[in-house]
Specification:
single chain; 14 strands; 11-stranded antiparallel β-sheet
């Protein structure tokens, strides 16, 4: 187990930084985009919703966090869902913080959302990686802390250019002054793809939100547009398409 992020600090803050993807085989391909992420305490949502008139929890605003976008999709409180999911895998998490893209002008798409579990003393005990694809599917990987770079067998068809018989290795240190998340996808021959998010913490204030939005305008819509644009570039490079497993039957 490792020391966690500042769970005693503000109920939410921002991380402004870059997402980078580097494909190694069978064709090299690399891109980088500016993004804005939200770091929010799932047990202090009411407090978080009062940090700025431009930000709301569970209602529409210029920037918003909707708990029903994650976990049980509103069927139970998100913090409760996360603790139960951790417990089902033998991890005792007392506090949970989420690193994810917020809704901007009512829209968000999170290829991955990370629920960080902490003990009452603020020790990082595990992470739930909630992965989505553009087919409307989702899979949850529950990863214990303290095991270096935890790994998981790929269980969700994410990219139409990557096979299913792969393994993920995660770098998931809890955010502090900076945030860094890395995922390396391996096949039997070694690494195929590296994805990294690196950002710097900014206060969730009206001024902080305004500055972040100037640097990342319409960011959440650009995430979806970028997914399809980069797929088109890969297809143009002649990277073979891997059919969705359900459609390949």
């Amino acid at each position: 187990m490792s020391a966690g992020g500042d769970i005693a600090g503000p109920p939410a803050c921002l991380y402004v930084g870059d997402v980078m993807h580097a494909r190694l085989r069978p064709r090299t391909h690399r891109f980088r985009y500016r993004v804005l992420a939200l770091w929010i305490d799932l047990d202090r949502l009411d407090e978080a919703g009062g940090l700025s008139p431009l930000f709301s929890v569970a209602r529409a605003n210029l920037v918003a966090f909707q708990p029903r976008d994650h976990g049980a999709r509103g069927a139970r409180p998100l913090a409760e869902w996360a603790r139960a999911t951790f417990a089902a895998h033998g991890i005792a998490a007392e506090r949970v913080r989420l690193l994810a893209y917020p809704r901007i002008l009512g829209f968000a798409f999170n290829p991955i959302a990370l629920h960080y579990g902490f003990s009452a003393a603020g020790i990082h005990v595990g992470t739930i990686a909630e992965v989505r694809n553009t087919f409307g599917e989702r899979h949850v990987y529950v990863l214990p802390a303290g095991s270096g770079r935890p790994k998981a067998e790929k269980a969700l068809h994410v990219s139409p250019f990557l096979a299913m018989d792969h393994v993920y290795r995660f770098g998931l240190e809890p955010p502090g002054e900076t945030a860094r998340v890395s995922i390396v996808e391996h096949d039997a021959s070694g690494p195929v793809l590296t994805a990294v998010f690196a950002g710097r913490r900014r206060a969730l204030t009206t001024a902080g939100l305004a500055a972040a939005l100037v640097r990342t305008p319409l960011m959440t819509a650009k995430v979806v547009a970028a997914i399809h644009w980069e797929a088109l570039r890969l297809w143009a490079k002649g990277v073979p398409v891997v059919p969705h497993p359900r459609r390949a039957r």
